[in-house]
């Protein structure tokens, strides 16, 4: 097993983006797609993480945007759990904001 792949075994849950940064040089030319929740993740941090992955992977990265339906997830971020309607309103606006940050 390569060093880059061994990092994934040591990564805390939810830390797949930083660990993925080590993968591009050690894998075949395939894309890397990370799943990040729009409910709690900061758009600026998401843009920075994916801009780095995009650069390191030679443009082979993508983002699977999801909402977080479980109230317990909010405790990981120190936020109140948004109601269903608000989660989906955030999710509708988030990709455009993230794209504008990535392009800036």
Model description:
This protein has 104 residues and is of the alpha+beta class. The chain contains four helices and two strands. A two-stranded parallel sheet has the order 1-2. Strand 1, helix 3 and strand 2 form a beta-alpha-beta unit. The longest helix has 20 residues. The N terminus is likely disordered.
Largest beta-sheet details: 2 strands, parallel
Count helical runs. 4
Biggest sheet: strand arrangement: 1-2
Structural class: alpha+beta
Distance between the termini: 37 Å
Total number of β-strand segments?
2
How do the helices and strands follow one another from N- to C-terminus?
HHEHEH
Q: Bin the strand percentage.
A: 5-15%
* Helix content bin: 40-55%
- Extract low-pLDDT stretches: 3-13
Mean pLDDT: 77
In short:
Helix content is 46%, strand content 12%. The chain contains four helices and two strands.
List the helices and strands and how they pair.
Layout: H1 3-10, H2 16-20, E1 32-37, H3 43-57, E2 61-66, H4 84-103
Parallel strand pairs: 1-2
Question: Which key phrases capture this entry?
Answer:
4 helices; alpha+beta; disordered N terminus; two-stranded parallel ribbon; 104 residues
């Amino acid at each position: 097993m390569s060093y880059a792949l061994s990092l994934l075994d040591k990564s805390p849950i939810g830390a797949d983006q930083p660990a993925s940064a080590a993968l591009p040089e050690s894998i075949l030319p395939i894309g890397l797609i990370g799943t990040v929740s729009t409910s709690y993740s900061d758009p600026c941090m998401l843009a920075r993480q994916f801009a780095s992955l995009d650069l390191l992977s030679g443009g082979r990265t993508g983002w699977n945007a999801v909402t977080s339906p479980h109230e317990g997830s909010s405790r990981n971020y120190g936020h109140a759990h948004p109601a269903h309607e608000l989660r989906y309103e955030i999710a509708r606006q988030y990709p455009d904001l993230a794209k504008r940050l990535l392009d800036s």
